[in-house]
Amino acid sequence: MDEKHLEDHFNEKIDQDVRIEPKDWMPDHYRKTLIRQISQHAHSEIVGMLPEANWISRAPTLRRKAAALAKVQDEAGHGLYLYSACETLGVDRDTLLDQLHTGKAKYSSIFNYPTLTWADMGAIGWLVDGAAIMNQVPLCRASYGPYARAMIRVCKEESFHQRQGFEIMLTLCKGSDEQQKMAQDALNRWWWPALMMFGPTDADSPHTEQSMRWGIKRFTNDELRQKFVDVSKPQADLLGIKIPDPDLKWNEARGHYDFGEINWDEFYNVIKGNGPCNKQRIDARTKAWEEGAWVREAASAYAEKKTKQQAA
Amino acid sequence: MNQNLFNYTLQQADNCLILGQRLGEWCGHGPVLEQDIAMTNIALDLIGQARMLYQYAAEIQDEKRSEDDLAYLRDAWDFKNVLLVEQPNGDFAKTILRQFLFDSFNCPFYEKLKESSDERLAAIAAKSHKETLYHLKWSGDWVLRLGDGTEESHNRIQNALNELWPYSEEITTPSEADIDANKNGFGVNLNDIKSERETKIREVLNEATLTIPDSAYNHTGGKEGKHTEYLGYILADLQFLQRAYPGNEW
């Protein structure tokens, strides 16, 4: 079959919502876009381990400590299946990690913000995982099979993390004045970065149209952001803390909350590397990778020795 | 309250908590994703074991205290863990060797504790023993890989062995609590484990082409609450929130 026929066949499958599998023909641009999207997500998972791992040693109870360990471990697991999904597209994990360490690949900017108090563990679960779920649930129907299947597992665990985060917030909000202050402070710091997680406005989002055509994106950035605001406002009310946006109010005519303008300068600055923790996050990942080199070499050398011994 | 049963339970709980806390420091910083997950998983098991033991200890104490009161509101002199588990992570080789020296105790310890006359300890041991079988396999396999891997990995784990060897034996040296527990039927006879453990350690270290140091000196004191300088910092971290905001629910 010539390329034209292959592409027609591919488009037919997309139109009929038939999954594309690793051995199927796919346009080069589709493959590249998927690699970019899935690897960014995988990187976000493993960089995202860092701000939360920051509070494991200081978790306030043993139950919270165990939950924090389990959660960060889940994120490592998500990283693993997403790197594996990427490998089915022909790029190995070491290459992808190299792109992360050298700054060629991006990850979610939210993880460039610091975790300053225990309440941040609540706010991250509630808002950051909440926003991630909004983004990711539609991807369980993504056109690329291995990606869609990975996302089903990821989403199940994320929704558990989100409930856990909300429960941390609820406990703080029902607690002492100091704990309530901690919860409000965390909401103040995480709210806007959480809204930025949905990416630029639709007008400034160059990939959206093609990605929607290919079924690797199901809703636009602004649609998802609106949905997130609509869901989060009543939750903040339930907690008794205030979303830091004076323009946030219900719009009867639209059936949605109106909200204030996002500080896009901040958004682009963090993407460019000027967020509060960009350097620390990449340094930590690079350090772990470089200091682990001798371990990986030893494991390979040992495996090779054993294979030779068995063959002899 | 049965003070000896309390001390005995606490001693093992403290070992698990402090080593779990140390291993948790690796989370997000492991040499490769799979091993990051493995270390976090073992940390999680150890924290789980610590919780079951603290919960039981709190019940024995019967003063309306919780697992968290025991973990978060005691000072270093009340902690009864061995000095081995509070040693810093160092590089991956040191973490592995510390883990192996501990697992080679913990696994046979729980196996014997399953026969405790105390039903609760026996039940905790039965659940925990299954976990430690995996821990021991994991750390033992890594001792082999690093010892018999490359020159660098061999040197690193040999250094770790030289450094940690004087902290190995405390764990099978009976404290008062150990002696009393064994006499009363609810505790393990450490002499039974000692030789089994030493055989296992020598077997693995030999296969890993490592040399056991000549030094026969053993550091002790942890079981009596005399710790290294490291424990104070571990507790400062661990207990920060409970100390800074006393009496709150979290």
CA-to-CA gap between the ends of chain A? 48 Å
Name the helix and strand elements of chain A from N-terminus to C-terminus, one letter apiece.
HHHHHHHHHEEHHH
Number of helices of chain A: 12
- Structural Rg of chain A: 21 Å
- Strand tally of chain A: 2
- The low-confidence parts of chain A are none
User: Please, how many helices of chain B?
Assistant: 11
Note the main sheet of chain B: none
> What proportion of the residues of chain A form beta strands (DSSP E)?
under 5%
CATH hierarchy class name of chain B: Mainly Alpha
**Strand segment count of chain B:** 0
What's the rounded overall pLDDT mean of chain B? Answer: 97
- SS-derived structural category of chain A: mainly alpha
Main sheet properties of chain A: 2 strands, antiparallel
Gyration radius of chain B, rounded: 18 Å
Shape of chain A: globular
Quaternary state reads heterodimer
Description:
The complex is a heterodimer of chains A (312) and B (250). Chain A contains twelve helices and two strands; from the N terminus they run αααααααααββααα. With 312 residues, chain A is mainly α. In chain A, a hairpin with a 4-residue loop joins β1 (249-251) and β2. In chain A, α5 (119-136) runs antiparallel to α6 (145-173). Chain A is globular. Chain B has one domain: Ferritin, core subunit, four-helix bundle (Ferritin). Chain B has helices at residues 3-24, 33-61, 67-72, 83-86, 92-113, 119-147, 151-164, 176-183, 190-207, 230-238, 240-244. The longest helix of chain B is centred in the first third of the chain and has 29 residues, at 33-61. The interface between A and B is large, with 48 and 48 residues.
